[in-house]
Amino acid sequence: QMMAFTRCETKVMNFTMGWEVQDLLSTFYSTNDNKGIQSAGNTIKGSSETMRENTYDTFMKHYNYLYNPAPRGGHDARKSNKPHATRGVDKYLYKMFIDTKSITNTFFPSPLERHNVFMNDKDWLDWFMGFTEGDGAMLSYNNQCRYVLTQKDTKMLEEMHNKFKFGYMKYYYDNNNNIKYGRYLVSDKKNTFLLYLLFNGNLYLNNRKEQLKRWNKSFNNTQMKTFEGLDMTNIPVIIDRTNKITFNNAWLAGFTDAEGCFSVTMNKHRGMDYVKMVFILDQKNGEDMTNEMSMLLANKNSAKLRKTSNGNMYRIEIYCNDINKDMYKNMLMYFNKYKLKTTKFISFKIWNKMLDIVLGNQPLSSDNMLKMRKLRKNMNKYIMENNPMGYASKS
């Protein structure tokens, strides 16, 4: 019979106790120690329960350790962006009542729960991972890891910078001193390691998983003193699992912000006006993943190969002209729940208004065509502002 204790929020060794066994866990990540003990529901002996599918919880732990420590002595540490190497124990947070038969924990919210910027915003992190898989660059050279995002929409990059509290921004200007595009970069070991923990087990695309493996190799070739200040003795292993794209998280919204497009095509047939409303997604060298998106959105494999100067590009086009089909309903429901964050959010809103005019009304009247042309003109402005910049394998 086993008993589970609340894990303390301090830098001490975790331990597991039972009626017949007592072992030390020398590290949060260790897969060698504690082999005789297994946490409830864990399918791999000796592994941390949070390591079963990804290292998301580990990211949360270390992110808060560096950037959101608990207030001490009346000082709210959130007001400082400087990493903290120590955290005190708030004796008022926990009260434990223990007898020989049962353990009951009565506690107030822990420092992590009170000050975790991502606690109630996991959708933002899912969106960020989808956006990264579409447009980000996870680079490694000579055991140096670097994360790069290049965008014309610098407000989105600034939001990432402000949200994470690490990395830095670079701006590039035209001859008139106007910003052409910006870059969000993370290059130091501790913060690229935090991104490694966030991505590990959460990636969908095979090429991104390969990039993360190179990061893992770089980290393992780094002296552990580089990570001084983090409660760790080794690098978590790569969790290589297959993730299925669903409507149940914000990953697809992030990927759409990076690689998607809401298209409107106008044409005449026998003197009458028709409009095609199309949702487009592109993916380089990823036919299987593109078809998986197509199955989710349209219940069929529709990826088409397009030869480009940057290599093979696969595209899906989801036509949303038929009021009797559910494709557009699923799409609208999803993007209304998981909001786009670049200027494509505005493009989607305009596209949605145009869809209301088109569905069930084709061929369109001259008045409706006039409305459509005005809306498309506004929509094209935001499409131009969100054209992709840079490459996934270059900075």
Automatic annotation (TrEMBL):
This is Homing endonuclease LAGLIDADG domain-containing protein. Residues 252-354 form the Homing endonuclease LAGLIDADG domain. Keywords: Mitochondrion. Coiled coil: none annotated. GO terms for cellular component: mitochondrion. Signal peptide: none annotated. GO terms for molecular function: endonuclease activity.
